[in-house]
Amino acid sequence: MYYVDRGKSNPENEPILQELKKLNLQYEVRNLKVGDYVWICRDVNTNIELVLPYIVERKRMDDLGCSIKDDRFHEQKFRLKQCGLQNLIYLVESHGKNEHVGLPINTLLQAATNTLVQDGFSVKFTDSVKDTCQYLACVTKVVTNVFRHFKAKEMFIRQLLQIKGMSLDKALAVVEKYPTPKHLRLAYKETDQAQGEKLLSCIKYGTLKKNVGQVLSQIVYQLFSPFD
């Protein structure tokens, strides 16, 4: 299933939720700190969620023009690139006949091209809300097929690899000791914050048996700690 940012659920954006319902897509409306749509995998027994490596930022042509003029455009792209998810999708949706969008169409198209070439995003143009929802349905189908048969341990490794500085050797070493997020969270429950932040720091990885280190240990604690 996937999450829709609560900012997209106000009355102005209700049509997109109605279209998603028509397509029988499973979604929930949440407050997302970055992006408009993300896909997750949820354990049916524990309700523990893993964020899958796909995220979509949706812009109507008029909103794209406004975001460029008020400098949100670059700031939002920067935050998306820092979120740790590998597949960044910038979706640009037509707005009527694309009149009164705030900037010349060529300027908007150049911004989208720069997002593709310079920033490394995938860029998708859609013609309408309905077209956008059909695209989201296609992405959902692809993501479901890719991750349908993944076990919790494999999913946990993939999630750890989204963290900056986390290599495959380090992730494998962590998962060798804590096979799933549930195991790690249970371990955190037995510690205070200071101990939890150091929990993974001395785990050995690779042929040279180096330590995972304090910095990564703290980052993982912040992401997986059961405490607020």
From TrEMBL:
CDD domains in alphabetical order: XPF_nuclease_Mus81
Oligomer and partners: Interacts with EME1.
GO biological process, one term: double-strand break repair via break-induced replication
Enzyme Commission numbers on file: 3.1.22.-
Record-stated family: Belongs to the XPF family.
Secretion signal span: none
Enzyme class: hydrolase
Biological role stated in the UniProt entry: Interacts with EME1 to form a DNA structure-specific endonuclease with substrate preference for branched DNA structures with a 5'-end at the branch nick. Typical substrates include 3'-flap structures, D-loops, replication forks and nicked Holliday junctions. May be required in mitosis for the processing of stalled or collapsed replication fork intermediates. May be required in meiosis for the repair of meiosis-specific double strand breaks subsequent to single-end invasion (SEI).
ERCC4 domain location: 1-96
Record organism: Asbolus verrucosus
Keyword annotations: DNA damage, DNA recombination, DNA repair, Endonuclease, Hydrolase, Magnesium, Metal-binding, Nuclease, Nucleus
Localization: Nucleus
Cofactor(s) listed in the protein's UniProt record: Mg(2+)
GO annotation, cellular component aspect: Holliday junction resolvase complex; nucleus
Name this protein carries in UniProt: Crossover junction endonuclease MUS81
Alphabetized GO MF terms: 3'-flap endonuclease activity; crossover junction DNA endonuclease activity; DNA binding; metal ion binding
InterPro entries found in the cross-reference section: EME1/EME2_C, ERCC4_domain, Mus81, Restrct_endonuc-II-like, XPF_nuclease_Mus81
